[in-house]
Amino acid sequence: MVTAFALLGCPAAVAVAAVASSDNQVDFGNNPAPMNAGARAMGMSAFVAIADDATAMAANPGGMIQLERAEASAAGGLYATSIKPAQGGRQNETRLDLDHVSAAVPFFAFDHQQTVGVIWQRQFDFTRSSAFNRHTLDTNFPTTDTTTDSSVTQTGAFSTLSLSYAIEVIPGLGLGITGSVWNDRITQHSSTTRYEHRHDDILVPDFNDETISDFDTATHIRVDEGYSAVMGAWWQATPGLALATVVKPGYKLHVSNQLDLQQSSPSAQPPFVQLTEHSFSTLRMPTVATIAAAWRQDDEDTVAAEVSWTQWSRFSLTREGRESAPQFFDHPASDQKDGISARVGYEHLFILPRVVAVARVGAFYEEQPGLHKVATLGDTAAMTVDRFYGLSAGGSLCYRHITYDLGGQLRYGHQVGSGQLVLQDDVANIYQLTVRLGATYQF
Fold first, then answer.
1. Alpha-carbon distance 258 to 23, whole Å?
2. Tens digit of pLDDT for each residue in 217-252?
3. CB 126 within 8 A of CB 181
4. Measuring CA to CA, how many Å separate 235 from each of 56, 67, 245, 297?
5. Tally of domains within the chain
6. Fewest CB atoms within 10 A around its CB: which of 2, 88, 363, 427?
7. Looking at residue 47, which CATH number applies to its domain?
8. Burial level of 294, CB count in 10 A (0-12/13-18/19+)?
9. In which element (H, E) is residue 59 found?
């Protein structure tokens, strides 16, 4: 561990340390797991065993055999995040973005019902901002009094362009696959940029020495190549019961990195340091497996549930032969514990003379990799599991050929985010509100 005293008067050493820290970490904010596309899936929470519209190719492509007419769908979202660190301060972020655009066409050929589809989807969102002030006093000789002001702004997303196919192999049993391309040149929206400014004032009274430094860092990460798949099965076991399973095999994203760092420290020699570094990394995403069920009563009430397992222990970032956890670069990927998530949902149809209205609610629980809070900065933090809880609600209005969907979810994490959203000696309460508005047109 490089101490503040050892770096006094040596801005190049500080710059190199900052490069090593910033360029080995991918900041997924507070959610490294993508959500299913669409407002309806969000409002219902559990959608894998339903999957009966143009967004099914993202949740469970096997369910696309239920489509009877061609559909086109699009949705946008409002994303709001509030982070309240335990040691004070607050971070807020609100933004509007496109969620997905999709189309699906069913057809009958060779004695089997089949469906093909295409979808552009925003998978991971990196937009966030934060700021904090920290004062530390090290009374060991030489006494070091450090004041740090830091701010971070991050923008961008990773998106995919996907093709999907489903076939009803026997009556009531659908198998489907969605193949996705991750490439910034193709999706036009698969990169993220992180800007960080840090002001350090380090006072060493035993030597009557003070060092003031300013760091400005810009890290740009772009997806150059990646391919992934979603494989799903949907089975109408009885007239009222549907069973489903989905497997998302692990995949690799090849990314390019550019880091630009500037440091100014008038009291040091040289007083100004500027570094630019280019590198390539491989981001390995985890395997996810889901089992689900949905029960429909009298075509008006549906209850759905699903459980997923995520192999976080294979979630890794490899750069220059060194593999680490993407969000915690000083830990090997194997330190991360695999996680479980569970979702339940309910919807009710109101069949009116000219329209059909739908109300839905849901709840969920998620586990993700995290760090234990440490007593003092510089201590080694052990890996743990961060737990998130959430509620969802939504509705739909179906009139003639158009269905309007509105869905939202509130996601909460209690005392999580150490070493990621806040410093390693702190934790935070996280509130994340997502609202989606979409429309589906049936041809």
1. 8
2. 999 999 999 999 999 999 999 999 999 999 999 999
3. no
4. 14, 14, 9, 17
5. 1
6. 88
7. 2.40.160.60
8. buried
9. helix 56-59
